[in-house]
Specification:
The chain has 161 residues and is an alpha/beta fold. The chain is 47% helix and 23% strand. The longest helix has 29 residues, at 128-156. The two termini are 20 Å apart.
């Protein structure tokens, strides 16, 4: 099921299963995963986009191998908060993927996630070539960590078990 509200998404998650986060680009998909305690997001890999079926097959393989209980998609809103064609594309990906994987799917505002990832890689003195190789899955980990941080706040407020 697809959830627009992160609280509803969190309530649908099975216990003790990890999350996967995706940064959907036109040519690549950045992939990050969490631990089963939902405490830290870790960059995993960048999938070179081919066709939806092939891309989805790789993602389902990761989901099955890592006991993933939920999927977060970075929602590329415009800086004013509105949704443009890239958001529509992300939502279409979610609708198509929902037919293939029986896990909760949620969205997280990804504005400036790539900027944050780039800054972190520059601070780590990562070469330009290496930054190009890892930027997408590092950005996915920023998106996913944002969700994890929100879940901590929701739990503290008593909004989640």
């Amino acid at each position: 099921m697809i959830y627009d509200d992160i609280t509803d998404f969190a309530a649908a998650l099975p216990p003790m299963q990890a999350l996967i986060g995706l940064d959907l680009g036109e040519k690549t998909i950045g992939v990050a995963v969490t631990d089963s305690f939902l405490s830290v997001a870790t960059p995993l890999e960048t999938v070179r986009r081919k066709k939806f079926g092939l891309d989805a097959a790789r993602l389902i393989e990761i989901i099955e191998n890592r006991r993933i209980g939920g999927l977060i998609l970075g929602l590329p809103r415009n800086m004013d908060g509105s949704e443009g064609p890239r958001c529509q594309s992300t939502r279409a990906f979610a609708r198509n993927f929902e037919k293939l994987a029986n896990i909760p799917i949620g969205f997280w505002d990804e504005r400036l996630s790539t900027v944050a990832a780039e800054k972190a890689l520059l601070e780590a003195d990562t070469s330009r070539k290496r930054r190009a190789e890892v930027i997408d899955h590092v950005a996915a980990s920023y998106i996913l960590q944002g969700v994890l941080d929100r879940l901590v706040v929701l739990r503290a407020k008593g909004g989640l078990a």
